[in-house]
Amino acid sequence: MSAVRGDGVGIEVTESLVRGVRLDHQHPGRAVAAAELSFPAYDDAAARDAFVLLRAELGEPRSPTRIATFPAASIMQRIDVTGRSGPELNELRSKLDRLHAINSTMLQDDGPRRWLFLIRWDAVAVRRLEDLAERAGFVDVSVEPSPMAVARVLPPAAS
């Protein structure tokens, strides 16, 4: 079974809960399964077990998985980078990491504008979530800040 646009798994991780939904483009309303479980973020083995249980509740999905999270100390800003070239963006990213410890960025095109979202969060903890989800059997896992995940799934009129 290959993944089709509109199919996938969305997971939200908070300090104490993990919520998941499995989407299928052929299913009316698209949501096939949803679940919410306690998430002991302080314990790797228990957190991995929570992901394993979540995967079972969602029907053992093999679709791409996106995790949305935004830990309490996280910060997100944006700057206008319209017209900047690839090398200029790379130079800016390097400078942001070196001078401000901002090592996570996302580009977003908005009509004629191009925004660079700067994300300051615990990159080690974010990678840990990705690793725990992969070890639990989720595939093609990536993590994004919750505000970006929400904006991506809202209808245009809501933004």
Task: For the structure shown, list the relevant keywords.
single chain; alpha/beta; 159 residues
Radius of gyration: 17 Å
Helix content: 25-40%
The fraction of residues in strands falls at 25-35%
Strand order of the largest sheet: 3-2-1-4-8
Approximate shape: globular
Major sheet = 5 strands, mixed
Total strand segments: 8
Q: Which structural class matches the secondary elements?
A: alpha/beta
Low-confidence stretches: none
Distance between the termini: 34 Å
Average pLDDT taken over every residue: 89
**What is the number of helical segments per DSSP (H or I, 4+ residues)?**
4
Order of helices and strands: EEEHEEHEEHEH
3D architecture notes:
With 159 residues, the protein is of the alpha/beta class. Helix content is 31%, strand content 35%. The chain is built from four helices and eight strands, in the order βββαββαββαβα. The strands form two sheets. The chain has a five-stranded mixed β-sheet. It has a three-stranded antiparallel β-sheet with strand order 5-7-6, with no helix packed on it. It starts with 7 loop residues before the first strand and ends in a 6-residue tail after the last helix.
